[in-house]
Design goal:
single chain; 283 residues; alpha/beta; Undecaprenyl pyrophosphate synthetase; 2 domains; seven-stranded mixed β-sheet; 10 helices; flat; ditrans,polycis-polyprenyl diphosphate synthase [(2E,6E)-farnesyldiphosphate specific]; ditrans,polycis-polyprenyl diphosphate synthase [(2E,6E)-farnesyl diphosphate specific] activity; UPP_synth-like
């Protein structure tokens, strides 16, 4: 009997792991409010959670399309709706990363994401692709952002472009857009480590003086970029592709299928998912 009980216990553990894996798969695949609602409906079949416990979610889904910022005709109303959406979130990221992991970038779609984020009150947006295409064409992206700001009537939220952390294209002082490439990630860590080694070699520092905090301070001097609160991974590849490895230890990642033809509802849905997540910070 002990053998039978042991086999049944192992079978139960396997079913629990399959349950958890399936729920996680549903969360990754959902993109917008309807997708998220479907996720919770499916999860309610697998877990003892009543679907009626999400009234706020249903309220957001049933919201009239005329109340969306992009549907507003009046500029002041459009700005107010953007801000209202930002304030409706349980928490708004101060720094959001846009990680492109798919095909050739669409500058119009990326500019849409940047301007929508700024209009909702996000003060720092970092855009990254592992081929460095965006950094090479920084001026193209800047032009798209400015044109979209004028079109939407949100020119009050202007932007300072930082290319590779040093070359600045200043339109205004705030918010900030960082256009990043792999050189801003691992390469920055390598350069900081080399500088520390040279300082020890030149007897400017003792090896005992070198610490994590010292390396962190040195990296902040190279790239004065705050840690991202949220990174949207835009594409099918399950990898961070070297995106600011030193800065993302506490960052929440949310996956969307692509940045092409992305809608405002997709972005707002991802921000609601971020607002609902619990960050335990290692506890």
């Amino acid at each position: 009997m002990a053998l039978v009980y042991g086999l049944l216990w192992r079978l139960l553990l396997i079913l629990v792991h399959i349950n958890r894996a399936f729920v996680c798969w549903l969360r990754v695949r959902t993109r917008c409010f309807k997708g998220r609602l479907w996720e919770r409906a499916m999860a309610s079949l697998l877990l003892p959670v009543a679907f009626t416990e999400f009234p706020e979610e249903q309220k957001e889904i049933q919201r009239s399309p005329n109340l969306m910022p992009l549907a507003a005709d009046n500029v002041a109303e459009r700005q107010a709706l953007f801000l209202r959406d930002g304030k409706s979130l349980e928490k708004l990221p101060m720094h959001i990363g846009l990680l492109l992991v798919d095909e050739e970038p669409s500058y119009t779609d990326i500019a849409n994401l940047i301007v929508w984020c700024m209009a909702m009150g996000i003060s720092c947006v970092s855009v990254y692709d592992d081929n460095g295409i965006l950094q090479k064409n920084n001026s193209v992206l800047m032009r798209e952002v400015i044109q979209l700001q004028r079109h939407l009537g949100v020119e009050g939220s202007k932007v300072e472009f930082l290319n590779n952390g040093s070359d600045r294209h200043v339109v205004s002082c705030r918010p900030t857009v960082n256009v990043l490439s792999p050189e801003d990630g691992k390469q920055s860590i390598v350069q900081a480590a080399q500088q520390l080694c040279r300082s020890v070699e030149n007897k400017e520092r003792s090896p005992k003086d070198i610490s994590v905090s010292m390396l962190d301070s040195l990296l902040r001097e190279y790239k004065n970029i705050p840690d991202p609160d949220l990174v949207l991974k835009l594409g099918p590849v399950e990898s961070t592709l070297g995106f600011l490895p030193w800065h993302i230890r506490l960052t929440e990642f949310i996956s969307l299928s692509s940045h092409r033809n992305i809608s405002y509802e997709d972005l707002l849905g991802a921000l609601h998912r971020y607002g609902a997540c619990q960050q335990r910070l290692g506890k």
